[in-house]
Fold this sequence. Notes:
Radius of gyration: 19 Å
Number of helices: 16
Shape: globular
Structural class: mainly alpha
Helix content: 55-70%
Number of domains: 1
Number of strands: 0
Strand content: under 5%
Distance between the termini: 15 Å
Order of helices and strands: HHHHHHHHHHHHHHHH
Amino acid sequence: MTAASPAVLHRVGDQALAWLDAHREYFRLTDEDRATGRGIVERLKPVGELAVNMRVLAREGVAGSRQHDISVRLLDHVWRDLLDGGNLLAELQRQEPLSPVPLEIYAGLYELGHRHPGLESAIDLARGTASWQALEMVPNRRLGLLNAERMIGRVPGGDPGKVLAATWLGRMPEPWTVQLHIAYDITHTVFHLTDWGAAPDRIPPRVADYLARYLPAWTADWAELEHWDLLGELLVVDACLPRPVLDAGMWELYAAAQAPDGAMPVQGAMPAGERAEVFDQVHHPTLVAAFASAMATSRALSADLAA
């Protein structure tokens, strides 16, 4: 297997981060969102994803000075401007006491040093109820919730091993049944299980072997369909394995799909339209590109040092 060039890996993330910085105003909730309450959770989702990416960059330590400055600026924008210093999350927690969304978003920011005691008190109150444990959600989402609880210093309200066993990936079924939504279930199971790549050793050996065996075929299928968003997530999974199994050609194909301004399309070519409309369509795959770049660059540099 030929390893991808660290320069290619780093360039993808550098360009993606520059695009995110140039479009940071589009992460903001509108006055209509705040006034009506409609769609607030949906609008907060990319804010949480942005915070996760900044946390990964800070943790992996592979960003240059320019990327570091951008990530600090974006993180400050998320906490101070988008979330009003956490007040927006606290208000959402008060309005919907059993919603896991404020905790899921807050967890990554908490690990980066941001605190909101009022929000934590509201989360603790909700976590003390039987209803919190009774919340129905798919197993890989439950893994994410357990990880978020751990990240803010609370004892997870469940056994991650048992939850993993209930996921599609934990059951390791026929590999040819990987349809689009199942593929995303696989990637998010890995993300939550490993704390967004921080602890790849949490993947049980049998599951890691299963992924290593079939990941090349899955990525080849989605690359042929030019599904760049999913391909980026699968590249992150590869970086979480004990030994990456994907060839450099997959990264080169992925990098070639990135637009000159740093945006990454979901599938096929970049969409056309108004700036805000394009943002709504491509912010997620661009965030994924930054995430994949940080993980793969860190892995590549570690391998070079070990050689």
